[in-house]
Amino acid sequence: MPEAVRWGPDRRSVRIIDQRALPERYVELDLRTLDDACTAIRTLAVRGAPAIGIAAAMAFAVAMGDASATDAGAIAAALRATRPTAVNLGWALDRMLAVVAAAGVAGSAALDAALAREATAILDEDRAMCRAIGAHALSLFPRDARVATHCNAGALATGGIGTALAGIYLAAARGDRVRVFVDETRPLLQGSRLTAWELQRAGIDVTLITDGMAATVMRRGEVDLCIVGADRIAANGDVANKIGTYALALAARHHAIPFYVAAPASTFDPGTPTGDDIVIEQRDPDEVRRGFGAVTAPAGVPVYNPAFDVTPAALLTAIVSDRGVHRPPFDFRAS
Predict the structure, then answer these.
(1) What is the DSSP secondary-structure string of 247-310?
(2) Alpha helices in the chain (DSSP H)
(3) pLDDT surpasses 70 at 96
């Protein structure tokens, strides 16, 4: 499995796979400064809610090595502002700030060690959570399942084997002939560039389709279930995930196909009552007008480019977390 994020060799940097270069080139970057980390997260060099949280925790620890405790809030605020929709980002930074508050002496070796331990714990916990999510998801898979997914919620998006892809990997490991349909995921093509690359590299039978083809594949009877990841899950079970997820869920409902969301419990946001309360990140219009350099729209044409959409809880068959399979009606107010 590719390791999307981990410590650099000296633990004074964060090593990531630069996902902007895939699938053409495999490039690793060492993030040595706060600016390095903020830029990497904002520009999607590292992406996926769990991986973002891990990278931010490690980057916080690295930045605090050259700062005083009075800078902790500013460091956390800079990282938190990079991707406002992903709840794991704030969750991980809150854990790091709690270490600073408890450790006392700023700039000390003891504080540096405590921050490194906490960031490592977040990584290790994510690996275990991915395995648990996969085991719970596997209970929902028929043998030799035909699966549709959207965006990337695999190893490239986490510290382990992924969330939505974890069940696929475990199904293959038990000997199933799993077939996966991967939406291209426009406009930045995370499905095409990342998920197809990751699954092909793992030896999984993968077929790439454009986002608009998913309903036709379902109508042809070629999909047994859909499973996607999540960047934030509201208290009522509404799910924010990569733009296009909502359309996939609508198509699945029309064709009576189970639609599952797989995400760690850290993605549950009890403080956000419904999906209407989720802040949706708006991205650069040129991602649509001239994605990857080619001009594909008239100059200056207005563009609506939300990074995420919200899938209502009513369209979900279940949410799979490291805690188990959650069935409707959902209530994550106490998570």
Answers:
(1) HHHHHHHHTT--EEEE--GGGEETT--SGGGSPPPB--THHHHSGGG---S-TT-----BSEEE
(2) 34-42, 49-64, 72-80, 87-103, 109-138, 166-173, 190, 196-201, 214-219, 245-254, 286-289
(3) yes
pTM here?
0.93
CA angle 264, 248, 82 (to 5 degrees): 50
Tokens 């949410």 correspond to: 319
Query: Using an 8 Å Cβ cutoff, are 233 and 263 in contact?
Result: yes
Give me 260's structure tokens.
Answer: 């599952």
Q: Which amino acid is at 296?
A: T
Q: Count CB atoms within 10 A of the CB of residue 15.
A: 17
* Closest of 116, 115, 118, 91 to residue 264, by C-alpha: 91
Looking at 231, 269, 309, 322, which residue is catalytic? 231
| 231 counts as catalytic | yes
Lowest mean pLDDT segment, chosen from 12-21, 106-115, 281-290: 106-115
CB neighbourhood size of 298 (10 A): 7
| Residues ≥6 apart with Cβ < 8 Å to 101 | none
Average pLDDT of the chain is 95
Domains and CATH numbers, the chain: 5-130 (1.20.120.420), 133-326 (3.40.50.10470)
